[in-house]
Amino acid sequence: MTTRTLFMLPGDGIGPEAMAEVSKLIAYMNSNEDAGFKTEEGLVGGSAYDAHGAAISDEDMDKAMAADAVLFGAVGGPKWDGVDYDVRPEAGLLRLRKDMELFANLRPAICYPALAAASSLKQELIEGLDILIVRELTGGVYFGEPKTITDLGNGQKRAVDSQVYDTYEIERIAGVAFELARTRSNSVCSMEKHNVMKSGVLWKEVVTATHQAKYSDVTLTHMLADAGGMQLVRQPKQFDVIVTDNLFGDMLSDVAAMLTGSLGMLPSASLGAPDAKTGSRKALYEPVHGSAPDIAGQGIANPIAMIASFAMCLRYSFSMISEADRLENAISTVLDKGIRTGDIMAEGCKQVSTSEMGDAIVNAY
Amino acid sequence: MTTRTLFMLPGDGIGPEAMAEVSKLIAYMNSNEDAGFKTEEGLVGGSAYDAHGAAISDEDMDKAMAADAVLFGAVGGPKWDGVDYDVRPEAGLLRLRKDMELFANLRPAICYPALAAASSLKQELIEGLDILIVRELTGGVYFGEPKTITDLGNGQKRAVDSQVYDTYEIERIAGVAFELARTRSNSVCSMEKHNVMKSGVLWKEVVTATHQAKYSDVTLTHMLADAGGMQLVRQPKQFDVIVTDNLFGDMLSDVAAMLTGSLGMLPSASLGAPDAKTGSRKALYEPVHGSAPDIAGQGIANPIAMIASFAMCLRYSFSMISEADRLENAISTVLDKGIRTGDIMAEGCKQVSTSEMGDAIVNAY
Ligand SMILES: CC(C)[C@H](C(=O)O)[C@@H](O)C(=O)O
Ligand SMILES: CC(C)[C@H](C(=O)O)[C@@H](O)C(=O)O
């Protein structure tokens, strides 16, 4: 039997509750399908800070590096608003991304048919939406140096962040976007601000060159990132794959996620480069939503984004394609039946708890 | 009679057509109201490049600096896609902003009642929307140094942009936002990414301190910029004034503009600091939309954003409040009557040309 190691980092807020529902699925797959998942749990974010003063410990980092895949819940909350910058909850997530070299962040923005009415957009604009945002995740302004606050005297400080991109970083993320486009509608829209940023100039140049060299069968278009935000709101279905940098990707994927009306349902995958020998790649899977401290601990959070993130894990880390498909179908089935957590409750539907939602999905799987 | 000097920079694409409709209004106000506007015209963007190889000439810069207000159309188009970075059309606009020290960019996102149905958002979410985005315009990643592309050899290049903010820059834009909030619903939401960016940390700190020191009567909230993008899509009416940095402001104001369904109608004002003696401030007014090269020269562009920008000019540069109100009402009246350019055409309305729209507004004024 294959052994598949999963390192689970539930984190803060609703993270642990959502993760518990994935554990149910794993238990089910282990006993009924000999899936061979071996899990271990660690701490990240505020809960790690409370335990040992850092947003993730070196020991847990080692475990994350060694695992076949990492499942990540959510981090942060008002409790840790005042902690030092270097040990704030987000630092744990950023260290995982950086040390594991998870440069490719895949954020599908899909609209579950049963939830199309929940979008703030008109239903016809959003029904059937299926966009994949490919966000660069280990470069840009998130990690560039210098990144400082300096006291200038006279009551003045100066804050500096640096957006830095090298050719190879753009090349490899463009490659991921083009490869994925080939499995979808074969079209990529690259977004930057070359009219203002030098990194945008290089971005456009390298994406264009990568396209010409290896992916000229894929349709490539370019859009300024601000115009991209507009177009996402105006006519989201015009897009298939969007490739963009770390900061624009952060903004644009959140806007896209909210458009679907399915924010609590959206998963993400963060992938490293495939190992030259084994083809395996480091990977972390996390919901797009945050830690929602306001509803944490009440058993009412929506676990679907976390479960859908596990479906991405099956697909991308273990090539368990039919299992991933079945799990995604199970989610749709449960939604079609009108089973809903509070955040997506609608007239005529049945409101359930986090745990009941997890059970329903396991049953439908 | 007062003399009021206006320097007009129609620019490229639909800029000149839209500006021509403002000229009609000015002529009307001069002959019927002794408004005393004295206008002069210059070149900016691609048309300036074609004439003398720069996106704006030093001579025209001098005129912009000397005028009571600058009216700006739009710049750019595929014709100039290949020109050098330093002389690209946008460089003209950026130089105007920087040299005139127009640090405060006011971007109202309002929804004209007659156009609520044109929004991609559900009508009830958007009806009555009235947000003011206050964007910092002379700092951040737009102007920070270093801003370079370096050849590293081995086919690798490195692009660097620098986001730089000093305390005083944040303080003065926060002050503008708080002052304006007092004339509206008295609430400001400040957006940054303090969880990732040092400039976000300083931003939040300085906005908070400014609030405490001088504006504690105004309600202040903070939101991460990505969450802000989401909330704009989810529930835009929760906002009154939003204050944010140059790059986030670029993205967020475009998303907000598109939400209203009234993109072709939205104006903006870019203001400098009031002169200590005279109280007058340098100012530039421009539509939020771009140069729309695809429809340029056909006489079908919507001139309303340009005309509404002139209304802002009346209000902010000349304190002609009743005239500004009348002009804004004239726009609403014309829309209520069902007079529409092609971009906002709807069933049962009358489609008119750029020039006919301008005439209708002058008549309703
Ligand atoms: C939590 C935060 C550091 C993170 C980011 O900015 O990348 C989040 O917003 C995301 O999009 O995953
Ligand atoms: C034309 C461009 C340089 C400009 C900007 O990025 O500021 C535009 O998008 C805007 O928002 O005014």
UniProtKB/TrEMBL annotation, chains A, B:
Pathway: Amino-acid biosynthesis; L-leucine biosynthesis; L-leucine from 3-methyl-2-oxobutanoate: step 3/4. It comes from the Bacteria. Its cofactor is Mn(2+); Mg(2+). The keyword Cell division does not apply. Substrate binds at R97, R107, R135, D226. It catalyses: (2R,3S)-3-isopropylmalate + NAD(+) = 4-methyl-2-oxopentanoate + CO2 + NADH. NAD(+) binds at residues 77-90, 290-302. The record marks Y142, K193 as: Important for catalysis. Mg(2+) binds at D226, D250, D254. Its EC number is 1.1.1.85. It is found in: Cytoplasm. Residues 5-361 form the Isopropylmalate dehydrogenase-like domain. Keywords: Amino-acid biosynthesis, Branched-chain amino acid biosynthesis, Cytoplasm, Leucine biosynthesis, Magnesium, Manganese, Metal-binding, NAD, Oxidoreductase. Homodimer. PANTHER family: 3-ISOPROPYLMALATE DEHYDROGENASE. Belongs to the isocitrate and isopropylmalate dehydrogenases family. LeuB type 1 subfamily. This is 3-isopropylmalate dehydrogenase. It comes from Pseudohoeflea coraliihabitans.
